[in-house]
Design goal:
The complex is a heterodimer. By secondary structure, chain A is mostly helical. Chain A is built from 11 helices and no strands. Chain A folds into 2 domains: 47 residues, no CATH class; 221 residues, MetI-like (MetI-like fold), CATH 1.10.3720.10. Chain A is flat, with a radius of gyration of 25 Å. The N terminus of chain A is likely disordered. Chain B is mainly α. The chains are: A mainly alpha, B mainly alpha.
Chain lengths: 276, 220
Amino acid sequence: MNGAHASIRDVLYDAPGPKAKRRIAFVTVISLLALAALLAAIVRRFYVTGQLDPKYWSIFLRYTTWRFIGRGLLGTLQVAAASSVLAFAAGMLLMMARVCRYRVLNAIATFIIELSRGIPTLLFIYFFFLLAPQFGLQLPSFWRITLPVSISAMGVTAEALRSGVNAVPRGQTEAAVSLGMRSASVFFKIVFPQGFRYVIPTLISEMVIVFKDTTYAYVVNYADLMQNAKVLISNYDALLAVYLVVAVIYIVINYLINKLAATVERRTRAAVAAAK
Amino acid sequence: MMSVGELLSQFGDKYLQALWTTYGLTVLCFAGALVLGIAITVMRICPIKPLQWFGDFYVQIFRNIPGAALLIVLVYALPYLRVMLSYYMCVLVAVTLIPSSFCSEYLMAGMNTIGAGQIEAARSLGMTFFQIVKNVVLPQALRSTVLQMTNLLVATMLTTALASQVPLNPADLTGIVTYINTHAVGGITAFMISAFFYAVTAVVIGQIGNRIDKKVRILR
């Protein structure tokens, strides 16, 4: 990611001359001052409202606090892992139905994919939360969050997989067919393995979407990171501190997943280029 | 269980208001996200290092924070800093900030498709940084990211469902489902109507985006 950004940044301006250097140095100092002022204003806000008081932050020095946060995070990770697996399985089936030769299956898969991609996760959550019980379907809270999150992710997964499959050159299919291979084995032995490799980075970055969607677990009272944060808050009366720390945990984890996706993408691209 | 007709005759005006809330939030937030996203992108490519850092930091924060977490911070944590925003404002801010970071990421990727030769040519014509950005870089970056921006508009609409997490009057398309379920046995029909509006809007936006893309895409 940073490599890609560096290129446009590098090309936009030449090595500056003495005049431009002075101007850049001047504006740099001004902008540094402005950013420092912004930071100072935020810290001051915390100070004057008493939010810097150690009583709010000292709970993070305790092992029990982190153990509780860790347990919530574990709950979040379990939902995220189960949702990712389910979304991948369902996305795979939808993709195959979408690209197969039967028109009816194509249409059904397209319809389901559009619904999955066009409806907010929260609405799916309310569907399972409010409506499923009316049909006598009693689900444990784990599934009441995992199912809607997977349903909401399966459409994008199917489309990502399809874009990978479509990126495999047609000549390969034609060659395999002319060798007498059956269409199913052409797909599973030749097209899909390559197409899948192209989209691994996309699939990894889609885990960020799944991970973010798990935050709605509080709606169904499932003990995830957010839900445990609420419990911590009611125990210690440190709302601002706890929510800020939890937000940072989410940001860091998603940042790492994105970094992983970018690294894998660079490697895949290099490998694909080397193979050509 | 109520039929669609019964449900609409009883809650029809509520649905219309809900649709209006969702569409209104979507349009406002998307417009705000575009403007903010462009501003952040200009910061990220300008020669001033601290502004680049700020832009990069901003994008990493808002593309990685879950919408619910951001909304909760805005609604429950900010009052402790004596920053009071109305519920509507909280939703508006959350659903603008998150897409703005994605907007900037798409623009950065779109810029990389512009040939270095063009920028060198502009520079040798004596154009300043802002002239190059305004006349050469941004127009092409926007034209080559129509499809991503279309997806972003749909994503923005889906993110406005966050509005159902705060008491809003009138409620949005997701909030109305819980409203109807607490006031009547709307059952699956209430869910279906909202789902239908979301999905149809998403498909229509997608189609329009494809058309615009075909018209303005720069063939290289």
